[in-house]
Amino acid sequence: MSNGDDDPADASEEADAADDGGDAGESAETAAPTLPDDATEESLTEYLDEIADRLEAAETEADLDDVEALLDDAETGIEEADLPEPDEDDEDADDPRGDLEARVAELREGVEDARGPYGEDVVDAVEAAAGTVEDTEWTDAGHDDVAAAVASFVAEAADAIDDAAPDAIDDAAPDAIDVAPDAIDGAEEDPEALLDEVADGEETDDAPGPIPVDRLTAALDAVAAAVADAGFDADDDADVIAALLEATGDLEAALDDAEEWDDLETHEQLRAQEYYDVLGHYKDFPVEWAALKEHESRGNVDMILLALDSLQSEFMERHCLEAFERMGKRGKTDDSVEEVLGRAEKRDRPAIRILGKMAAAEATDTLIEYVGEDSNPQLQKATFKALGEIGAPEAVQPLADRLDPDGDTDELVRPHAARALGLIGDTRAVKPLADALEAHPSDDVRAAAGWALRQIGTREALEAVAEYADERSFVVSTEGEKALDALDDETEPAATA
After folding, report:
1. What are the start and end residues of every segment in region (Disordered) (predicted)?
2. Same domain for 165 and 245
3. Which of 9, 223, 307, 328 sits between 20 and 30 A of 28, alpha carbons compared?
4. pTM (2 decimals)?
């Protein structure tokens, strides 16, 4: 229904004129009702009944505008009418004014329900379908069905639009190019090329196989833009709008029926993504574990991540993480680091150990935050070792601070800090380690400091440890003797031929 040119304010006056203009049976149109001069509950109810009849007979947007104007008059009449007020103390008392106002509100809803449909409704529906196509993870079979549904819709919609507004598609094509410039090569020279390509289901030279999602959504965006540009009238173009809405409804139904990953059981998803293809004869159960072992041996990081994401049992989660820990650097990819780091950010100790085995420098900042967690010694132990295996120079000072005998760090944790400094191998750690070796009250800390200095391996570090070769503590003297041997190896002259 289209918007008419009639002034709604004149609706009642026109109705009065119609009453005076002769026999109503000879009139092409039913006369509009008039607001009663003597506004009572009965007369206003009768007036609203006449408006309801006029609403039921309305065929155009202009007719509905007239009904809207009559309802405005009715609302004013109800406000000004001298109607009995309900007894506040009686919950069941009649409320004529409230009942009439409720009837007006009901009729207004009827007017809104009767309006349209509009071209904007088509645009909204097509854009919603494009969002579904883009946001859903389709299976291969589902993608094929979606492509076929979009192709059918685009062909039907393009024909309907082209018949009613021949220039709309040409004018709307640049909008589609803005949405997906890389997906619509050549559409700028031939605006209908994209829609023709999708409608025909053609493979492209640069993207053989099924039409990519970005092309499908770009084609839908082009249809939506063309409908908006056409400016279809709800009355004059009612048939076109109805046809487009019917086609859009068919598209929505097809998208609902198309297979997406969430529709599949877990084992079906894994089979579809070839997780089980590595299996020959196997003796381990469940079968997912047997496949996991094979993927680990082959270094198939993506498949281990797939199992970790898909298989929610604690058993498989533990085995997936253990596989990454055993693989170490072989298991390091951007995706695996992102997955494990996300777990480490929740203070997950197995994940922290894995990051160390991977030597994932990306985790350094996160792990350094845990160095000072003196209230969680087990977390500190895992963190110190991981930072050492990563070789993070940024961790030298935070780790050195944990050697302070007057600090709050657990006595059993301090040796791990010393060994981590040795794994990092930064010469800035020589002095704090030498100080710990000299004066720390714990022999375990002193021995760990000696070991760390030997790992750093500079002459200064070795000499600092060698001084304690005759130390009373066996674990400390052992490190001193090894340092002396290393110094002797440095000074021993090379054998002559």
Report:
1. 1-45, 57-102
2. yes
3. 9
4. 0.53
